[in-house]
Amino acid sequence: MTSAIKIINCDPFYLNPVFTALPQLETEDYLVRLNLLQEKMRETDLTHLIVYADREHFANMDYLIGHDPRFEEALLILDANGARTLLVGNEGWGHSSQLPVETQRVLHQTFSLQGQPRQKTKPLARHLRRVGIDKSSSLGVIGYKYFLAGEVKDPEHQTDLPAYLMEEIYRLIPRKQVCNFTASMTGLPDGIRMHLRSAKEVAIYEQIAERTAQSVIRMLKFLKPGISELELTSLAAMDAMPISAFPMINFGAEHVANGLRSPNEHSLQLGDPVCICRALRGALVSRAGIAAYDHATLPTGLKNVTEQFYKPFWAALAAWYETVGIGVSGGEVYDSIFSRIGSKRFGVGLNPGHQIGADEWTNSGIYAGSAIALVDGAYLQSDVIASCSKPVYSAIMEDGLVLAGVDLRRSLAAEYPVVWQRIQQRRTFMQTTLGIRIKEEVLPMSSLCGIYFPYLLNCSRIFSKA
Per residue in 19-50, is it b (16+ CB within 10 Å) or e — as a string? Predict the structure, then answer.
């Protein structure tokens, strides 16, 4: 109930993390992942598997062999015996020279940018034959997405790989012997990438998430009337770590309504709607609200927005945090939001939460009626966006958490005690200061988890139900 929600005075920036070098994935970590995929190949009697990647759709290949194309396309070919072949373009050749797992590399200049040398290129079909793919093969293809019944004519055999590649493949193999195997990586509930298996993976994402949150915290601290969107980004001290989404710093009705735009020289005015979003590969943190110091500085016509919009929004997010847990269905998580702010006036449209990884949105089993259960090791994003169009304002509270069973928690505490200490500080703050009673397995990944500001120009005041 929103009557229980209070605005309290508090220092929400309680965590002053000291970052060390990120833990590094080693050969054995990648081999675990590759062996899991090999097992799925054996279960479905595939002789070969192709994994496609390009600049935007890199995450599956990066997860398996630590390679992401920076300018080009790439194909990873696996056979039933575990042999690995990687096809790359001109600039991918050097970029792939230090892979963490043994992989034969082949220069395929068709994957290079237009106008670059192509004298050494060979038809793709020739490369495929060399690794044993022929008309007797059974081939799985991993792209960026799989398809559901009703979306396309034949979802099992439809793929999102470029048509020119598929035409070369179909020259060698009948279409019915080529299946979309993407769900083996990102399908729910048991895709390989759909849960973290080691303390190291949790530790990597935790540090990335906190680095992301600290960028947003710096922007919140420097937010003031007269500052431009780009000036605010410069004060955020954003580092050069790879991103999963462009920074979105938007001031004013026109920019906030656009939603996904990048910042420019537009300056903040008192009373403007504001959206701040920072995303690295492995985390996204976002907040949105009104540029006001208190109730008195809210724009005319929005004096009731705190009680009627932002309090119910935060109450729903608090319920979301208290609902998620191992074994909880996606439908239950969905209901925790939509039973509270599902009416038209809140404008919530997308899934209220999803899986996250190196790509910002990997998949989501959180939808109406979903029976898909959240699993041990799930890395979730509290992605709830509420908005109004007349006048324009929005509420966004995006942060990550990991659901970790007893064994994963014990491993994390033993192997990464500093990470574990930060997580416990967050859990304590959420439960004692915010009054959000999260389950034992819920590991908040950044120090902004659960924190929401009724007035974005005054970060000493936050919502609580403690």
Answer: eeeebebeeebbeebbeebbebbeeeebbbbb
Query: Is 27 inside a domain boundary?
Result: no
Domain stop point among 137, 153, 180: 180
Domain end position, chosen among 180, 206, 225: 180
What is the rounded distance in angstroms from the CA atom of residue 142 to the CA atom of residue 81? Answer: 18
Bin 122: left if φ > 0, else alpha if -120 < ψ < 50, else beta: beta
Tell me the pLDDT tens digit for each residue of 338-350. 999 999 999 999 9
Per-residue pLDDT at 291 exceeds 90: yes
Shared domain for 9 and 129, answered yes or no, is no
Element (H, E) at 311: helix 311-323
Distance CA 5, CA 461 (A): 13
Domain presence at residue 382: yes
415-466 tens-digit pLDDT: 999 999 999 999 999 999 999 999 999 999 999 999 999 999 999 999 999 8
* Domain of 149, in residue numbers: 45-180
